[in-house]
Amino acid sequence: MAASAEILYRPATPVDGAEMWRFVQAAGVLEPNPSYAYILLCQHFGDTCVVAERDGEMVGFVLAYRPPRQPDTVFVWQVGVSPKTRGQGVGIRLLRYLLALDGCRNVDYLEASVTPSNKASQNLFRAFARKSNTRCRKLPFFPSEFFPEPHEPEYLYRVGPIRWPEA
Ligand SMILES: CC(C)(COP(=O)(O)OP(=O)(O)OC[C@H]1O[C@@H](n2cnc3c(N)ncnc32)[C@H](O)[C@@H]1OP(=O)(O)O)[C@@H](O)C(=O)NCCC(=O)NCCS
Q1: Which CATH number goes with the domain that contains 40?
Q2: What is the CA(69)–ligand 1 centre distance, in A?
Q3: Which protein residues are within 6 Å of ligand 1, measured from CB?
Q4: In which band, very low, low, confident or very high, does the pLDDT at 29 lie, cut at 50, 70 and 90?
Q5: Measured in Å, how far apart are the chain's first and last C-alpha atoms?
Q6: How far from 66 is each of 63, 79, 102, CA to CA, in Å?
Q7: What distance in angstroms lies between residue 130's CA and the mean position of ligand 1's atoms?
Q8: Residue closest to 6 by CA, chosen among 50, 47, 82, 59
Q9: Over the stretch 90-130, which tens digit does the pLDDT of each residue have?
Q10: How far is the CA of 81 from the centre of ligand 1 (A)?
Q11: Residue 82 sits in which domain range?
């Protein structure tokens, strides 16, 4: 386990899925998915999912996986930090911890899809790129027409190449 102040970061397990689901309901901003989706993602992709905890309470998480057709990439499906913990660097630390996991070995790019109204998320990925001395490109991803309900377009934020220190 790695510590940053009093917040602990660790890989996720399926037991965390229920708390992630509750966290998303409470956070309000994140798109809620069925509890089964959180449990299943932690089961299949626990090597690329991270929980941040303070005193045993979840204060953030990142759910990510490596798309089978993009072996050099980790895709962040959802990242959230509790409202009272935001703006303190936890989002950046979650992404750093994620990339340091064995599950992200040989990853050169981190991707996420973000809507135009989500400035916090856009800034998170831009800041992460800047602090990693690399680029963040914004690319078209899913246009509004792809969705069955009114939905903002989703843009792909592609961070990389991630430069690893020389061994
Ligand atoms: C996006 C989110 C995870 C960022 O987490 P965080 O711990 O607050 O982020 P950090 O403190 O590490 O800040 C990272 C960067 O984002 C910027 N940022 C954070 N919150 C911001 C906000 N509300 N508005 C604008 N910029 C913001 C910070 O200033 C920082 O950039 P800087 O280094 O250039 O100053 C958090 O705001 C959140 O949970 N939002 C709701 C859920 C969400 O939108 N998730 C993403 C979609 S899946």
Answers
A1: 3.40.630.30
A2: 29
A3: 27, 29-30, 78-81, 86-92, 118-121, 123-124, 127
A4: confident
A5: 23
A6: 11, 15, 12
A7: 14
A8: 59
A9: 999 999 999 999 999 999 999 999 999 999 999 999 999 99
A10: 8
A11: 2-160
- Ligand 1 centre distance from Cα of residue 120 (Å): 4
Position 97, amino acid? Y
Summarised one tens digit per residue, pLDDT across range 66-100 is 999 999 999 999 999 999 999 999 999 999 999 99
Q: Is residue 133 part of a domain?
A: yes
Torsion region of 149: left, alpha or beta (phi above 0 gives left; psi -120 to 50 gives alpha): beta
pTM assigned to the model = 0.94
Residue 27 is predicted with a pLDDT of 86
Count of structural domains within the chain? 1
Which of 61, 123, 126, 152 has the most ligand 1 atoms within 8 A of CB, as the residue to mutate?
123
| Nearest atom, ligand 1, residue 131 CA | 33
* Residue 165 placed within a domain: no
